[in-house]
């Protein structure tokens, strides 16, 4: 029987878990905890505060997508699913609840997912498993997956194109890949970008830091469709959703999403200290930048949006799709 927990249950569960159980599996720096496997590969922490932020993001995304876990137009439930950079594992767990006959594998650098049993109560569906793995390394998994999913990870990958190439190689013909990502650059109501908006100044610094220290390009989200096409995907589709920075909209749904999104952003900002330090920003300068962003979130006169992207595409069916070309 599928478990009956809700997303909100996981905050209580994770806070109650003993940190001692993670000794030797994590690193501490500046009062925050980071993954030890492939140290430094992922710049964000994995401690309780970051896990709560991830949960808040999951709740927000489910709200944006009207409680849909994916948008790829699969004609029947997938039998074999992989969730890349699964984080705390909520997407994989909810997939397991909704599709009890589907086998779901969640991969992440950090062993922070809930355990199967806590005090005799099942917390992870029996059809869901988690593994510590680096999705940017050579994949050793099967090549017959029906569906591969990744959320909020492209901006932290050294090479998103390489991950997408690995994904298509491990999908069965006709299988689907879906990438869900926020494009954090703030656009005004008319669609223009003001470089003086605090969030955009922050993004400029983060793009410079990623390029100079790790050779990464962010934001890469609007280009994902082109990358998928180059990798060989077909039937590529893009869905976009405008999410306000702050609770300034008049309608209740947008106002709710803007409030949750801004709380999430406030939690995310301080995790950038290391990245910004690489390009010479002092802690005081970084804190001033964060403060400007937070003020923006609460300034009802600043009307701007981030954009949530959902990209999905299908691996060609070798028989029919090649004949159509």
UniProtKB/TrEMBL annotation:
Domain of life: Eukaryota
Pfam families: Methyltransf_23
Family statement: Belongs to the methyltransferase superfamily. LaeA methyltransferase family.
Protein name: Methyltransferase domain-containing protein
InterPro entries named in the record: SAM-dependent_MTases_sf (IPR029063)
Signal peptide: none
Single GO MF annotation: methyltransferase activity
CDD domains from the UniProt entry: AdoMet_MTases
């Amino acid at each position: 029987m599928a478990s009956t927990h809700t997303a909100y249950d996981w905050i209580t569960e994770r806070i109650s878990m003993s940190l001692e159980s993670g000794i030797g599996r994590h690193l501490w720096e500046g009062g925050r905890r980071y993954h030890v496997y492939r140290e430094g590969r992922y710049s964000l922490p994995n401690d309780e505060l970051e896990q709560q932020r991830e949960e808040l993001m999951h709740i927000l995304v489910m709200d944006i997508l009207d409680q849909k876990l994916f948008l790829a137009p699969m004609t029947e439930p997938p039998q074999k699913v992989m969730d890349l950079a699964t984080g705390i594992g909520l997407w994989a767990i909810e997939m397991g609840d909704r599709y009890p006959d589907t086998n779901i594998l969640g991969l992440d650098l950090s062993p922070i997912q809930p355990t199967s049993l806590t005090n005799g109560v099942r917390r992870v569906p029996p059809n869901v498993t988690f593994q510590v793995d680096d999705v940017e390394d050579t994949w050793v998994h099967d090549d017959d997956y029906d569906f591969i999913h990744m959320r909020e990870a492209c901006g932290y990958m050294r090479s998103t194109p390489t991950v997408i190439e690995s994904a298509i190689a491990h999908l069965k013909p006709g299988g689907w890949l879906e990438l869900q990502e926020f494009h954090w650059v703030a656009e005004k109501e008319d669609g223009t970008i003001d470089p003086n908006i605090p969030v955009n100044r922050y993004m400029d610094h983060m793009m410079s830091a990623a390029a100079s220290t790790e050779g990464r390009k962010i934001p890469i989200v609007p280009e994902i469709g082109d990358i998928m096409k180059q990798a060989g995907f077909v039937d590529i589709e893009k869905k976009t959703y405008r999410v306000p920075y702050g609770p300034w909209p008049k309608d209740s749904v947008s106002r709710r999403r803007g409030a949750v999104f801004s709380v999430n952003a406030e939690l995310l900002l301080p995790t950038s200290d290391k990245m910004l330090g690489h390009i010479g920003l002092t802690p005081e300068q970084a804190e001033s930048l964060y403060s400007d962003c937070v003020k923006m979130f609460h300034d009802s006169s600043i009307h701007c949006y981030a954009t949530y992207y959902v990209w999905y595409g299908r691996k060609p069916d070798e028989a029919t799709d090649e004949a159509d070309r």
